[in-house]
C-alpha cells in the first residue's frame, strides 16, 4: 500500500512527458506548442513564430508550471539540415513519448515518410491540421457552411495520407483550443498513454472544457490520498515539528499545482477575460484560497493555521513510544487529507464558475 502511494506521489511530482511537434516549415508548429502551454506567441518563454523557418534545431519548451512536461518544437522536415531520410536519427526520436505532425494545408510526402519512420520505431504519431478558423472564415465568405468546409478539409487530408491507412486527422485552431477537434485529440492521446504519463498530460493542458476541468479535478483528488499517506509516514518519525513543517510544504506545493492546472493564475485569467470580455479575474479573487496562493507568502501561513491544533497533538503523541507514533501518523493522515480535499474542492468550485462565466462548454 505504501509503495503504491509513493508511486502516486512520484506520478504527480516527477513523471516526465516529452511531446515532439514536427512538420513542414511554416505549418504552425510553434503556435501549437505555445497554445498547448497556454501561452500567447508574444509571451515570455513562448516558441518564436514567423513566416520563415524559425526552428533550426530541436528546441525544448518546458511547461510554465509543470517543468517535467516538455514540448519540443522540431525543425521542419526536409530543411537544409534535416533531410527526411535521416530525420528520426537527427532529432533523437527515442527521447520522445509521441509525435504530432502539424500542417496548415496539405500533408506532404515528407509527412507520410516521417510517419512511417515513427511507426517503424514503435512510437505513436498523430496528425493535426492547423489554422482551421481561417479556412472556415474564408469559405463562409463564399457561402460555404462550416460543416461543409470541415468535411472538405478532412477528405483532402485523408486523400493526402491514404498510403497510411489513412490515419485520423484532428482539425484545430491554436488561437481557440475549445473549437473543432482539440478535445478529440486529447482523448485519443489519453487512451494511448500509460497512466502516469496520462495524468501528467491532463494536469498540463489548459482548461478548454468542463470535461477537461473534471478530469483534472479527479486526478488531483486521487493524488490527495497519496500525499496524505506520505504525511502520515513522516508523522510516525519521532522528531518534534518535522511532520508539521513537511505537511505545510507538501500542502502548499500541491494546492499551488492545482491552482495553475485549473487555470486560476492571473495571467491565464487576464487572457480569458479579454477574450470573452467579462471581469473573470475579479470574481476569482473573491476566493480567500485563490488570493493566498496568488500572494504566495500568505499561503504557508494559511495552511499552518489550519494545521495548528493537529500539529500540537502530533507532537505530544510522539513522546509516547510506539502507540504514540501510530496515533500521530493517523492524525497527520486525516488532517492532511481533509485540508487538501477542502482546498481542491474550493479551487474546483472557483474554476467551474470561471467556465460558466466564459460560457465554455
Describe this structure in words.
This protein has 361 residues and is of the alpha/beta class. It folds into two domains: 186 residues, Rossmann fold (3-Layer(aba) Sandwich); 152 residues. The protein has 15 helices and six strands. Helix 9 packs antiparallel against helix 10 and helix 10 packs parallel to helix 15. The longest helix has 36 residues. It is globular. The two termini are 38 Å apart. One of its GO terms (molecular function) is GTP binding. Pfam families: IIGP. Keywords: GTP-binding, Hydrolase, Nucleotide-binding.
CATH homologous superfamily of the largest domain, by name?
P-loop containing nucleotide triphosphate hydrolases
- The first-level CATH class of the largest domain is given as Alpha Beta
Number of domains: 2
Radius of gyration, rounded?
A: 23 Å
Approximate strand percentage: 5-15%
Query: Overall pLDDT, averaged?
Result: 80
Helix and strand pattern: HEHEEHEHEHHEHHHHHHHHH
Uncertain spans: 235-242, 308-328
Question: What is the helical fraction, as a range of percent?
Answer: 55-70%
The rounded distance between the terminal residues' Cα atoms is 38 Å
* Main sheet strand line-up: 2-3-1-4-5-6
SS summary, helix count: 15
Oligomer: single chain
> Which fold name is given in CATH as the topology of the largest domain?
Rossmann fold
CATH architecture of the largest domain: 3-Layer(aba) Sandwich
Which structural class best describes the helix and strand composition? alpha/beta
Shape verdict: globular
Domain IRG-type G: 15-192
GO cellular component, one term: membrane
InterPro entries: G_IRG_dom, Immunity-related_GTPase-like, IRG, P-loop_NTPase
Protein name: Interferon-inducible GTPase 5-like
Amino acid at each position: 500500500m505504501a509503495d503504491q502511494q509513493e508511486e502516486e506521489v512520484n506520478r504527480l511530482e516527477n513523471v516526465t512527458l516529452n511531446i515532439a511537434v514536427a512538420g513542414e516549415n511554416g505549418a504552425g508548429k510553434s503556435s501549437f506548442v505555445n497554445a498547448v502551454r497556454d501561452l500567447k506567441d508574444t509571451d515570455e518563454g513562448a516558441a518564436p513564430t514567423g513566416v520563415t523557418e524559425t526552428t533550426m534545431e530541436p528546441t525544448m519548451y518546458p511547461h510554465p508550471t509543470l517543468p517535467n512536461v516538455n514540448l519540443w518544437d522540431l525543425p521542419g522536415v526536409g530543411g537544409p539540415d534535416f533531410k527526411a531520410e535521416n530525420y528520426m536519427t537527427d532529432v533523437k526520436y527515442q527521447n520522445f513519448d509521441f509525435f504530432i505532425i502539424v500542417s496548415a494545408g496539405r500533408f506532404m510526402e515528407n509527412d507520410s515518410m516521417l510517419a512511417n519512420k515513427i511507426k517503424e520505431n514503435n512510437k505513436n504519431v498523430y496528425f493535426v491540421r492547423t489554422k482551421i478558423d481561417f479556412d472556415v472564415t474564408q469559405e463562409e465568405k463564399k457561402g460555404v457552411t462550416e460543416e461543409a468546409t470541415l468535411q472538405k478539409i478532412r477528405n483532402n487530408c485523408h486523400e493526402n495520407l491514404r498510403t497510411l491507412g489513412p490515419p485520423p486527422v484532428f482539425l484545430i485552431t491554436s488561437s481557440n483550443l475549445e473549437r473543432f477537434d482539440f478535445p478529440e485529440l486529447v482523448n485519443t492521446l489519453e487512451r494511448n498513454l500509460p497512466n502516469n504519463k496520462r495524468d501528467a498530460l491532463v494536469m498540463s493542458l489548459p482548461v478548454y472544457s468542463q470535461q477537461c476541468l473534471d478530469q483534472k479535478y479527479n486526478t488531483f483528488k486521487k493524488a490527495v490520498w497519496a500525499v496524505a499517506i506520505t504525511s502520515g509516514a513522516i508523522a510516525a518519525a519521532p522528531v518534534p515539528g518535522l511532520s508539521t513543517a513537511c505537511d505545510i510544504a507538501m500542502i502548499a506545493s500541491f494546492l499551488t499545482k492545482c491552482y495553475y492546472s485549473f487555470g486560476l493564475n492571473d495571467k491565464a485569467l487576464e487572457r480569458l477575460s479579454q477574450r470573452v470580455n467579462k471581469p473573470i479575474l475579479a470574481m476569482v479573487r473573491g476566493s480567500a484560497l485563490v488570493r493566498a496562493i496568488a500572494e504566495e507568502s500568505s499561503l504557508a501561513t494559511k495552511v499552518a493555521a489550519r494545521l495548528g491544533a493537529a500539529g500540537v497533538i502530533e507532537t505530544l503523541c510522539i513522546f509516547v513510544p510506539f502507540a504514540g507514533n501510530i496515533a500521530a501518523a493517523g492524525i497527520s493522515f486525516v488532517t492532511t487529507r481533509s485540508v487538501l480535499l477542502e482546498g481542491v474542492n474550493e479551487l474546483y468550485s472557483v474554476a467551474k464558475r470561471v467556465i460558466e462565466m466564459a460560457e465554455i462548454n
